[in-house]
């Protein structure tokens, strides 16, 4: 992954400063913890390799969080982009793929929620660092090799609320989630639920 990132960045596709950090422990949560530990700024964006953020995503998130200091984690709305045909069963299970409206009731564009999915969420670095200093340890590692373990994002959302902060969802934050065809046979859904369990 780092070799591919270096190749893309060497082509000058961004003028922003960047740092590539290496984490030896497999698992999504360990990669995110490494990101938190090495971050240099107030806000962190967890963007997966198959997420395409809207051009104004980060700027909009910063504006929302600057105006609302109680928000620790802010999630956005993912829209599925299919590699191939959309499965007939997908709409019923879209939330399991970090896609869809995270607050089904229409209460506006910015809504307090219990949890948001990890793809595309923005967090305050100091609050995540506080969790680490307090000894918070995720019970779930996130995806790891062929294991579809999930729920580490939900754990993190609950942990920040125990500190007295809030989790919000904004319909103004849009990203596309590329769903590769091999991830989408019907037989992939039961193992997802085992991972959630």
What does this structure look like?
With 197 residues, the protein is of the alpha+beta class. Helices cover 32% and strands 21% of the residues. It contains 7 helices and 6 strands. The protein has helices at residues 2-10, 28-38, 57-67, 90-93, 125-133, 152-162, 189-196, and strands at 43-46, 51-53, 71-82, 110-113, 121-124, 166-179. Strands 1, 2, 3, 4, 5 and 6 form a 6-stranded mixed sheet that branches. The protein is globular and about 45 Å long. The two termini are 29 Å apart. The mean pLDDT is 86.
The largest pleated sheet is described as: 6 strands, mixed
Quantity of strands, as a count:
6
Give the end-to-end Cα distance, rounded to a whole number of Å. 29 Å
What would the average pLDDT be, to the nearest integer? 86
User: What structural category do the secondary elements indicate?
Assistant: alpha+beta
Shape: globular
The DSSP helix count reads 7
Helix content: 25-40%
Write the element-wise H/E pattern from the N-terminal end onward. HHEEHEHEEHHEH
Low-confidence stretches: none
* Strand percent estimate: 15-25%
Could you give the topology of this structure?
Layout: H1 2-10, H2 28-38, E1 43-46, E2 51-53, H3 57-67, E3 71-82, H4 90-93, E4 110-113, E5 121-124, H5 125-133, H6 152-162, E6 166-179, H7 189-196
Parallel strand pairs: 3-6
Antiparallel strand pairs: 1-5, 2-6, 3-5, 4-6
The gist of it:
The protein has helices at 2-10, 28-38, 57-67, 90-93, 125-133, 152-162, 189-196, and strands at residues 43-46, 51-53, 71-82, 110-113, 121-124, 166-179. With 197 residues, the chain is α+β, with helices and mostly antiparallel strands.
